[in-house]
Every structure is written in structure tokens, then in C-alpha cells.
Design the sequence.
């Protein structure tokens, strides 16, 4: 396995994160999220490195990594689109939204666009049923969505991605 | 702290689990994930029991006893819950028993007969299919379909060997046991995982398909693979040993190392002599002894050397020491340099010989040369014949840079330099014998199988040779040898040598 090197910024966050909990192991998920925030996904080499850092086994980190769908094991697009497909959103039209996204982006669920800008997945209830249908773009919620709103959102994100390059 | 289990009062130390308290009373609560030598995981739910007055069932393995608690291990509610847990575990389990090596010692089979006996409500075609017959390490085969995800194997690699090769991946019925990328499950203790695994998911590549477990006979013995001398059980049938298994002994870890577990292979190794190979050709074992005796008989005592060995039992070394005394030779060595100690923090010893402590006891009583002095004696040219164990005679002659005719007791037909005769010897699975491990603990091995026709243990062969030379040492029976050990070695004067169970430590 390749050796993994944590970023300076990550290393600075380790001690305060661990200090928040009674046991170092409890800092596992927050630190995994931190890695994912930086890299967009959580690579396997990082599992080994993080295990060493927290004094837990690789099996533990790998188990957590594969248990939670919120962790991405493969690199994805710049924007992770999570369309809620649970009851409230389903009734409020999320199926249509998902079909629209697949068509416009030309990818299936779980896929990433060629330009590396979007990754599309579905999620279970995002806890915002009151404003269904809901989609998350990375950490942000977009609520009460319609196809029109979605269309504009995608265009804006595309433009933002281009501007960034 | 006092509590009731199935209506009977019992008293336990605070912190004891319900499962532990019940077990101490002889009540065996079903379990898959719980293992006494691993951390408690509480994932299989098979150990559910009822506590009177509590709304829900609890897992006996992970719930500590509380004062005044009244536990019901076999109430209708508890049994029904176990039946349901078992049904869940079996939903995706393949119906493999007829071709599964675990059959006969499988936790699923056993508890199904006790608790389940249900008809499957799930069509076979809907079962989750997984990787079968995975070659996962040198000694193990993994069948992911049979696994019930108890995580014993994962915890073993985490907590005991600390090698961390395994993990549980994914969630729900997607979960499976997997190797760390790039790793192989080949730590020094991997075969224990086949024992630990309560089902047929991990099986031993060596034992697979060689014998059905219900045909096997079991004989208590010890491992002679190193100075630790782990207690083990020899599993055999029709005079063939099929496997070695750890034998539970209070205060000793229930594991064996892979190397020790494979030591039984020497019994049927292709080069193992069943006849004596002498200058005159192949002889029956008894004729081989006569040949050795006739060579010895022609020499003066100073020309004969006798070599004890930490790889031989107490009995063997005592008989060789007595033979040296009877012949009146000063050229004998019962000494061995060693620095024993557990080298990996688990079991394996830096000293590969099973009986260096035992040899030291005999050395202390009978004296003789140290290894270094012995080597000088051999180099002096005065010695014309040497009797001992093949490997050590070879090493000693190499060290002394000489070639002296020898008669060697041997477990392999590797020729010793300048040998006059290789004499076949019975191994420690073929004769009752004693060792003393590195910590001074008496270790008893019981003969599990018979040695090949006419092949004797070394002590008996030494006794025969002495008689043929007209210098009898009177060690015809093992009882006589044990008597002599008690009479000669003060440290063992009151040791329970013939008792199989009593523990004994050197002072
Ligand atoms: S392979 Fe065996 S020991 Fe490991 S989790 Fe599965 S059933 Fe348990
Ligand atoms: S540690 Fe030594 S005594 Fe124990 S099984 Fe291994 S070789 Fe045998
Ligand atoms: S169902 Fe979509 S947010 Fe709850
Ligand atoms: S033995 Fe208690 S939950 Fe598995």
C-alpha cells in the first residue's frame, strides 16, 4: 500500500478534534470527514495512516469507511449532487428531478461527468422533508426544488467551476 | 454479588458477565461472537437471555451481572428470540453441510438442532451469493458465503497477533470479511482462525476434506515444536494423525502456532526411516540395535561417546545417561546452551527444543561434559563411536571437524557424517513421554498412534542395547523409567508424573 501523507492543515486539526472526545477513537469519523473535505474522497491509504494516528486497527477504519455511504472511496466530481429519494421527496417529485439530472449531465446514478465537475448519487431522507424535494450540493442544501431551479443551479455551478479553473 | 440464574442462587465478582456466571454454574448459553480470549463484541445476538422484570431481552455476553438479578436462560421468550436470530443468520447461509468441513463441529448445525428446526422461509435462489474457496493465506481457505460475520477472526488478528489483516466491509447483507489490500492472512498463528470461526467459513487448507471430524479420536498431548510446549490434542483415526488442536488448559492461551501445528507431519514424512539403515544394508529395527551393540561391544569405554538431547523426552535422556554410566564412559554430554523466552509476546519460543529444562535436570544429576568440552573430546581422536540423535550428532561432529562412526536415533533418514547405523525412533506422538517447558512446567504427552512395527522410543532402545552389552540398566517398562526419574532427580521426587491432569512446576 502507498504511504499516505496528511496535509499540514489536517495535522493541525488532529489534536483539538481528539481533545473534544473522551477517547481518541471517537475522533475517527470527524477526522475521516476532514480528509474527505480536503480530497473529495477518502482513499484506502488514508485508512491505514489514520488507524496508526488514532491507535485503532485498520479493520476499524475500513469498517467505518465502508459502512457509511457518506464516505466516498473513489475520487468524484467537484460537486457531489445528492438527490433525496426518500418518501417526502419522492412524493414531491424527486424522481423527475433525478431523471432530469441524468439527462442533462449524461450520467447514471453513481457516475461522474467527463469534465470532472459533477458526481450524481441518491441519498435517503436528508432531514428536510418540510421543504421537499431536496438535493445537497457538497455541504449545502437546495430545497423546494423544481426542474427550472435545478436547471439554473447546474448552469451556475458549471460557470463557477469554469471560473475556478 | 448475588444473583439467580434459572432459579438457582449464585455469587460472582462484580463485573462478571451473565454468560460467564452461567458458565461457571455449568449452564452453557449459546454464542457465536463471544470468545473467552477475545474482546466482547456483542454482535451476533445468539446469547439473548431474559431478566425477570426487564422489558427487553439482553445479550448475556456483554451484560454484567447485577445484585439480585434473576436471569432466565431458557424461558420461552429467550428461546423464541434465539430461534429468530438463528433464522436471520441462516437467511443467506448456503446449504453446504454435505461438502463443508465444519460439519460435525459447526455452531450453526448445533444450535439449529437445539433451537431452530424451522423450515426455511426464504427461497434458495434469493440467497446472497459470495466468493467461495478463497485462497487467503498459506494455511487457510475462506468461504465468504458461510460467514455469519461474528468478527472473531477480525478481532483475533487485531488483538492477539496484532497483524490486522482482516476487516468487515460494507453494511447489512452487503457485508463480508475481506483482506487488507495487498495483505495475505499468513501470520504465525493463522490456523487458530479455523478453530475460532464458529462456522465453516475459515477452514484449514491442510485438514480440509481429509477426515470427517466425528470419526476422529482425541488424545491429550503437548507440542514439541519449541520450549513453550503448548498443550494440544492429537486428532487421529486408524493410526493416522490428521490434525493437532489446542487443548484448553486453565491459565494457558487456547492457541497453537502454525509451525507447531504442522509438526505432526514428521510422522509420515517421506524420508522417515521405519527400518535401520546400517553399513550392512537395511535391517529390521531390532537387528539395527544388535548391530549398534556389537559395534559398541568391541570398544573400550573411553572410545564410546553418548549424546543426550533437549529434543528428546526426560525418559530418553535419563536412559542415555544410565547407559553411559553402565558402560563406564566419561564421554557423555547432557548439556545444551539456550536462552529460552517467548519471542513474539504470544507463544513462540526462542528455544526450539521442547525439553532443555528437563535435560538440565538430568545434567545436574549425572554430570558429563558441557557441549564445548564434548566437542573437544570428539576432536581429540580418542572417541571411536558416538550414539545420539541424528541432528545433534551431525552438528557436534561438524563443530569438532571430525568424522566418527556413529549410531544415531533418527526421525529422518538424512545421513549423519560417518554414520555406522541410523536407528528409527518412535516420536512423541507415538509414546507416552514427559518434557519440561521453559517455565519449568511439567508437560505430558500420551501416545496417540503406534510407531511403525518394531520401532521403539529411545529409552527402550537404550535399555535393549545395555542388556545386549551385558550391562543392564533395568528400564524395561515406562513405570520403571518413571520410578528411576523420581529416585534420581530430587526436583521431580514428588512430581505427579503419571497423572495426566495435575499441574506441576519446578520449584
Ligand atoms: S469468517 Fe468465521 S470467524 Fe470470521 S466473521 Fe465469519 S463466521 Fe466469524
Ligand atoms: S509455540 Fe512452541 S510449543 Fe506452542 S505450538 Fe508453537 S511450536 Fe508448539
Ligand atoms: S424524504 Fe427527502 S428530506 Fe426527508
Ligand atoms: S455471544 Fe453475545 S452477542 Fe454474540
Sequence:
Amino acid at each position: 500500500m502507498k504511504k499516505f501523507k496528511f496535509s499540514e492543515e489536517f495535522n493541525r486539526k488532529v489534536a483539538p478534534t481528539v481533545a473534544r472526545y473522551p477517547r481518541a477513537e471517537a475522533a475517527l469519523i470527524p477526522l475521516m470527514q476532514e480528509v474527505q473535505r480536503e480530497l473529495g474522497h477518502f482513499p484506502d491509504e488514508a485508512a491505514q495512516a489514520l488507524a496508526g494516528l488514532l491507535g485503532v486497527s485498520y479493520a476499524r477504519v475500513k469498517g467505518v469507511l465502508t459502512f457509511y455511504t457518506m464516505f466516498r472511496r473513489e475520487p468524484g466530481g467537484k460537486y457531489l449532487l445528492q438527490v433525496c429519494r426518500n418518501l417526502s421527496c419522492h412524493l414531491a417529485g424527486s424522481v423527475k428531478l433525478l431523471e432530469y439530472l441524468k439527462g442533462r449531465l449524461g450520467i447514471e446514478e453513481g457516475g461522474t461527468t467527463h469534465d470532472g465537475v459533477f458526481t450524481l448519487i441518491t441519498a435517503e431522507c436528508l432531514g428536510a422533508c418540510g421543504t421537499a424535494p431536496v438535493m445537497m450540493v457538497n455541504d449545502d442544501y437546495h430545497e423546494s426544488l423544481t426542474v427550472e431551479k435545478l436547471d439554473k443551479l447546474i448552469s451556475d455551478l458549471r460557470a463557477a467551476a469554469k471560473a475556478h479553473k | 454479588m448475588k444473583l439467580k440464574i434459572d432459579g438457582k442462587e449464585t455469587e460472582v465478582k462484580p463485573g462478571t458477565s451473565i454468560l460467564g456466571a452461567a458458565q461457571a454454574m455449568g449452564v452453557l448459553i449459546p454464542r457465536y461472537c463471544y470468545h473467552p480470549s477475545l474482546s466482547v463484541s456483542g454482535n451476533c445476538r445468539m446469547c439473548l437471555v431474559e431478566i425477570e422484570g426487564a422489558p427487553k431481552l439482553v445479550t448475556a455476553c456483554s451484560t454484567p451481572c447485577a445484585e439480585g438479578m434473576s436471569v432466565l436462560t431458557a424461558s420461552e421468550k429467550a428461546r423464541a428470540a434465539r430461534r429468530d436470530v438463528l433464522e436471520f443468520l441462516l437467511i443467506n447461509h448456503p446449504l453446504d453441510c454435505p461438502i463443508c468441513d465444519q460439519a460435525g463441529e459447526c455452531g450453526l448445525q448445533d444450535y439449529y438442532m437445539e433451537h431452530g428446526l424451522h423450515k426455511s422461509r426464504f427461497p434458495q435462489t434469493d440467497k446472497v451469493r459470495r466468493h467461495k474457496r478463497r485462497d487467503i493465506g498459506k494455511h487457510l481457505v475462506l468461504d465468504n458465503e458461510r460467514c455469519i460475520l461474528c468478527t472473531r477472526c477480525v478481532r483475533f488478528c487485531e488483538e492477539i497477533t496484532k497483524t490486522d489483516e482482516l476487516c468487515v466491509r460494507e453494511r447489512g447483507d452487503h457485508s463480508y470479511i475481506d483482506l487488507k489490500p495487498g495483505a495475505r492472512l499468513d501470520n504465525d498463528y493463522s490456523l487458530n482462525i479455523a478453530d475460532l470461526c464458529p462456522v465453516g467459513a475459515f477452514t484449514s487448507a491442510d485438514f480440509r476434506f481429509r477426515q470427517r471430524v466425528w470419526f476422529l479420536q482425541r488424545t491429550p498431548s503437548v507440542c514439541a515444536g519449541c520450549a513453550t510446549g503448548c498443550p494440544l490434542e492429537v486428532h487421529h483415526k486408524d493410526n493416522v494423525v490428521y490434525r493437532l488442536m489446542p487443548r484448553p488448559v486453565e491459565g494457558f492461551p487456547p492457541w497453537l502456532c502454525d509451525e507447531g501445528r504442522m509438526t505432526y507431519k514428521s510422522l509420515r514424512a517421506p524420508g522417515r526411516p521405519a527400518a535401520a539403515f546400517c553399513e550392512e544394508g537395511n535391517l529390521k529395527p531390532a537387528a539395527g540395535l544388535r548391530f549398534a551393540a556389537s559395534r559398541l561391544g568391541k570398544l573400550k569405554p573411553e572410545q564410546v561417546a553418548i549424546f543426550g538431547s533437549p529434543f528428546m523426552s526426560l525418559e530418553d535422556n535419563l536412559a542415555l545417561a544410565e547407559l553411559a554410566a553402565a558402560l563406564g564412559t566419561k564421554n557423555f554430554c547432557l548439556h545444551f546452551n539456550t536462552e529460552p523466552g517467548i519471542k513474539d509476546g504470544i507463544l513462540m519460543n526462542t528455544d526450539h527444543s521442547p525439553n532443555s529444562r528437563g535435560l538440565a535436570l538430568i545434567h545436574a544429576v549425572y554430570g558429563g561434559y558441557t557441549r564445548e568440552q564434548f566437542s573437544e573430546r570428539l576432536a581429540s581422536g580418542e572417541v571411536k563411536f558416538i550414539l545420539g540423535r541424528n541432528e545433534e550428532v551431525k552438528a557436534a561432529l561438524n563443530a569438532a571437524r571430525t568424522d566418527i562412526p556413529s549410531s544415531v536415533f533418527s526421525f529422518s533418514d538424512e545421513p549423519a557424517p560417518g554414520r555406522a547405523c541410523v536407528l528409527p525412533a518412535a516420536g512423541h506422538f507415538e509414546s507416552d513421554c514427559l518434557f519440561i517447558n521453559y517455565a519449568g512446567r511439567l508437560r505430558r504427552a500420551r501416545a496417540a498412534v503406534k510407531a511403525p512395527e518394531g520401532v521403539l522410543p529411545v529409552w527402550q532402545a537404550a535399555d535393549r542395547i545395555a542388556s545386549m552389552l551385558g550391562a543392564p540398566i533395568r528400564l524395561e517398562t515406562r513405570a520403571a523409567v518413571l520410578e528411576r526419574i523420581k529416585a534420581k532427580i530430587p526436583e521431580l521426587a514428588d512430581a505427579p508424573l503419571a497423572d495426566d491432569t495435575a499441574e506441576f512446576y519446578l520449584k
Chain A has a mean pLDDT of 93.
